[in-house]
């Protein structure tokens, strides 16, 4: 590694699609694919809030944007979410493997994330 990623521990929420006996996705009443949420603790990460959106008043933060660096091999994808300091963030866009400058080996996985609409609720899932 070029540098130590960090001392943050994140909870990675992996969302595994539910499939029927024929391998087709199982849909809910609204036509959305059902998923099973599997929480995995990942140590040695770095995460920071990069922006906040205040639309209701100057004191009510309604959304946070952030970015993180996760160790190589972390099973994160665009369906995932992470919880950092009790706030749940949805991965926003595809995770990006970042190669080490000297070796070309994967140094870390970069993610951008956005807080859920109800970020204090660990079961919340931002849609759209």
TrEMBL record:
It comes from Nocardia terpenica. This is Uncharacterized protein. The lineage of its organism: Bacteria, Bacillati, Actinomycetota, Actinomycetes, Mycobacteriales.
């Amino acid at each position: 590694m070029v540098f130590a990623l960090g001392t943050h521990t994140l909870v990675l929420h992996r969302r595994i699609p539910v499939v029927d006996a024929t391998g087709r996705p199982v849909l809910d009443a609204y036509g959305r694919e059902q998923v099973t949420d599997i929480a995995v603790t990942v140590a040695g990460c770095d995460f920071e809030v990069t922006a906040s959106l205040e639309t209701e008043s100057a004191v009510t933060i309604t959304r946070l944007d952030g970015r993180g660096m996760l160790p190589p091999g972390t099973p994160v994808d665009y369906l995932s979410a992470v919880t950092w300091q009790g706030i749940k963030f949805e991965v926003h866009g595809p995770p990006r493997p970042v190669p080490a400058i000297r070796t070309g080996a994967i140094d870390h996985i970069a993610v951008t994330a956005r807080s859920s609409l109800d970020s204090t609720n660990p079961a919340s899932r931002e849609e759209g």
